Amino acid sequence: MAPPFAVATFDNYGTLTDWEGGAAQFLYETALRHGDTDLVPGRELRDLWEGIQFEILGGAYRSYKQVLAESLRQVCTVRGWPYDEEEAAAFVRSMRSWQPFPDTRPALLRAHRAGMRLVILSNTDRDIIEHSLRHMRVPFDDVITAEDCGAYKPGLDFFRQALDRIGVAPQEIIHVAFGFKYDNAPAKHFGMTTAWVNRHAEPTPDGEPADHEWRDLWSLAELADGQPVPR
């Protein structure tokens, strides 16, 4: 039996790769290294950084390494940490090391065996995501980055270019993402079915709900081949 969608597209960081844990660890280590006397949990630092990054991504396009540098510089200003270019280089090195979630590889391999094409749509640079791909070892059919498009999600131009490159009607695609505010609205704008991977059972964000809400990627595997996954 053919899967219900010809293509599954994915946000990478936070969906396939542990973006939250990786960023929280890096930022907390940075706080420790600079002797921050008002330590807060790594998750709070990550939330601060992500909010700053989101605003930067809404401006004129710049490489993701530049986005990382500027967002980290602003975090350092807010937290009172010193900043130099080595801090930004360390953030990039950290990101290249972030690992996939345990379910990523087996769930995606199963979806691929069922006949789904797998495509990443990621707000990053090519020389960063290459390392994520090496960690995952999944036979993706394509990887489309912000560097390729000269644009970032949630901008519609990113999705427009990605859909042109994929070459399949949006109704034949399910877009799977953790980044609700980056992915859900633009994907639905173009008529894609959406799945929100809510690994931490967070409250549903404001805005039009996703078509599916999943705790992990095993739900995609079940959707692809119709077989339940033992839990």
Could you characterize the architecture of this molecule?
By secondary structure, this protein is of the alpha/beta class. It contains ten helices and six strands; from the N terminus they run βαααααβαβααβαββα. The protein has helices at residues 19-33, 42-57, 64-79, 85-97, 104-113, 126-136, 146-149, 156-166, 180-189, 218-225; strands at 7-10, 117-122, 142-145, 173-177, 193-197, 212-214. Strands 3-2-1-4-5-6 form a six-stranded parallel β-sheet, with helices on both faces. The longest helix is centred in the N-terminal third of the chain and has 16 residues, at 42-57. The model has no long low-confidence stretch (mean pLDDT 96).
Give the distance, in angstroms, between the N- and C-terminal Cα atoms. Answer: 24 Å
**Gyration radius from CA atoms, angstroms:** 18 Å
Strand and helix order = EHHHHHEHEHHEHEEH
Q: Biggest sheet: strands, sense, closure? A: 6 strands, parallel
**Mean pLDDT reading:** 96
Number of helices: 10
Content-based structural category: alpha/beta
Number of strands: 6
Explain the layout of strands and helices:
Blueprint: E1 7-10, H1 19-33, H2 42-57, H3 64-79, H4 85-97, H5 104-113, E2 117-122, H6 126-136, E3 142-145, H7 146-149, H8 156-166, E4 173-177, H9 180-189, E5 193-197, E6 212-214, H10 218-225
What keywords describe this structure?
12% strand; alpha/beta; 231 residues; 10 helices
Write a brief structural summary.
The protein has 231 residues and is α/β, with parallel strands linked by helices. It contains ten helices and six strands, in the order βαααααβαβααβαββα.
